[in-house]
Amino acid sequence: MTRLLTICIGLLALPLAAQQVPDWYNAGHERRIDSLLSIMTLEEKVGQMTLFTSDWDVTGPTIREGYQDDIKTGRLGAIFNAHTAGYNRDLQRMAVEDTRLGIPLLFGYDVIHGYRTIFPIPLGEAASWNAEAAEESARIAGRESAAAGLHWTFAPMVDIARDPRWGRVMEGAGEDVYLGKVMAEARVKGFQGDDLTDPLTILACAKHFAAYGAAQAGRDYHTVDISERVLRDIYLPPFRAALDAGVATFMTSFNELDGVPATGNKHLLTEILRDQWGFMGFVVTDYTSINEMIPHGVAADEAEAGLLAVQAGVDMDMQGAVFYDHLAEQVESGEVAMSQVNEAVRRILRMKYALGLFDDPYRYSDTTRQSQNILTDANREAARRIARESFVLLKNDDNILPLSPGSGRILLTGQLADSQEDMLGAWHGDGRAADVITLLTGMEEAVGDGAQVNYVPDMQEAIRAARRADVIVVATGEDWEMSGEAASRADIGLPGEQEAMIRALAATGKPVVVVLFNGRPLAFPGVDSAATAILEAWFPGTEAGHALADVLFGDHNPGGRLPMTFPRSVGQVPIFYSMKNTGRPMDPNNKYTSKYLDESNDPLYPFGYGLSYTTFEYGAPSLEAGTMTRNDTARVTVEVSNTGSVDGTTVVQLYVQDVVGSVTRPVRELKAFRRVALAAGEGQTVTLELTEDDLSFYRRDMTYGSEPGKFMIYVGGDARTSNSISLTLE
Ligand code: GLC
């Protein structure tokens, strides 16, 4: 059966015009800010530019004493790591009732993939390729955060990441620019909604601005040295997508960029973000990143670092106390213009007005609403559903999966099978291990009387128990603390003896199903050959076990696709699909071409890859017209069929190659995709659109735009597809 279904994908254009005025901007508030600024003392203004952590969570290297006194004296305008409606109400009362002007506090927190109901880590959520799901999880996280007294999350992290040694790949959307833009937009809209005066919405924060993910050697906080072209073509677009989605704040990154730390980088924070993009929210630094310009070697002392930061365009100092200690004096000495301080304070007050905090400073401190909105059954159901969609089926020989819930002896092993805390992943906010459903619990609840789950965590015992099993399920991978911030790994294999364990289990001759828990792509070629099936589960969150049982026992057909390339070995890193062709592309028959002596150029699993319990076939792509002008929209149509016996969802991916450019261009780049649900035997005709902006880039002269000529269009189920057609831009 074929239904003609024209699905037009409006592609995220990247207009280089300034940001349209965001919907939270209110000219009426500006007049109230004018009045407030006119009566604020310089010390009170510096207070608004200061952010300190409470002592409830530690997310960085320093903790200050006495922040409550600073609130009461008006020297502190924002707090992070403080949460729950009651505690934040107490702190807010100090600001509103004990200070001269009663300016409300702003409460921030790292709500990265859930506040108390924890969703898959963002890299896992990106593997769903489901923007609606990403928006939904951010909306639920935002509602729970707001109910817990929070106004602001330090998310989404939108750093493009192409080096799996870097622990923070878990926090973003992976290697691809287009998927990164889609996820950035979705998450900002989820957190902020379409009305910031709604007390169940919070400010979002696009971080870490910029190119933090390009840290050399994948080592956190390391040097970033990339061209302006790579910055503009690869690392900035997700930030621009966040800005176009109305993001209220940006956070500077720890790294230097072309020799200048981002926190003191006027090109980045003012010329690009303000002058070219027209950003109207405020910029906060990362944790003591102003102070860190001293070890970076661009400031001799904190005063000089503070000067660099404020003159570059920083509005708020996170935890550094540099503005707190030096800014007033620098204004009084004339080193810093009062107008610069006023502009920073205006941007900060603008967001407090946008949240309605001046109308009611306690509108986020409702303990009744807190109890009604946190860890609800509906939130858990959403977490289970979204976790299911994050899983990627990497291998399924002999169709060993799905398992039957009604028959068979299942041996479950691996320490992670019964670990609640590890399922939460890094940056799990107020998520609690006790809330988590483990893989063991999920499987035990799912099987009927005719089947049994025998959990044997010890490897030697498991090998003995294998004799009495029909199938072995191995929970393997990383502990949750092996990824996230300050968690880079030089070896991205399976930790410890897990690979040996899997090989030993496979040697028993019983089928082995590997369930992988990890915060980054891992290199596990040995496991790949030993395992019968591999399910990539990332860190699935609070509902891990239920979601995994749904997939392992076939209640849900997995449809996830890899948002990052999985290497064969760490020696290939960085390895990503949109590489350049080079002048000597790999030729196995020619020594003098780009390759290794001891490793393939190919990844273990490519970007966009994922299997299903069914199979899909793609017809040849066709074009409405083989040529297009700059003002046209090209429509690429392809027939997709579910040729198996199970309903399933595939992700139709469209890649573009600019064959000849004024500069070298990647061998292909994702420019559109569409998730398509197909019943067994069903076919659909899917049409994806391309505009001139999708063919544009920073050209030889660093202007942004397209160039006429030939383009190859690839349409298929992952980045390796050869299913192609050519298009000419006139
Ligand atoms: C950390 C992280 C940043 C986080 C901040 C506050 O160092 O780099 O992503 O939002 O500090 O916890």
Describe this structure in words.
With 730 residues, the protein is α/β, with parallel strands linked by helices. Among the domains are: 391-572, 3-Layer(aba) Sandwich (Rossmann fold); 616-729, Immunoglobulins (Immunoglobulin-like), CATH 2.60.40.10. It is built from 21 helices and 28 strands. A six-stranded mixed β-sheet has the order 12-17-16-15-13-14, sandwiched between helices. Strand 27 and strand 28 form a beta hairpin. Helix 6 packs antiparallel against helix 16 (377-390). The longest helix has 17 residues, at 131-147. The radius of gyration is 26 Å and the shape is globular. The two termini are 37 Å apart. Residues 59-60, 110, 154, 207, 286-287, 485 line the site of alpha-D-glucopyranose (GLC).
Could you give a short description of this structure?
This protein is α/β, with parallel strands linked by helices.
Bound molecules: alpha-D-glucopyranose
Q: What structural category do the secondary elements indicate?
A: alpha/beta
CATH class label of the domain at 391-572: Alpha Beta
Shape: globular
State the share of residues found in helices, binned by percent.
25-40%
Radius of gyration: 26 Å
CATH superfamily of the domain at 391-572: Glycoside hydrolase family 3 C-terminal domain
Ends: how far apart?
Answer: 37 Å
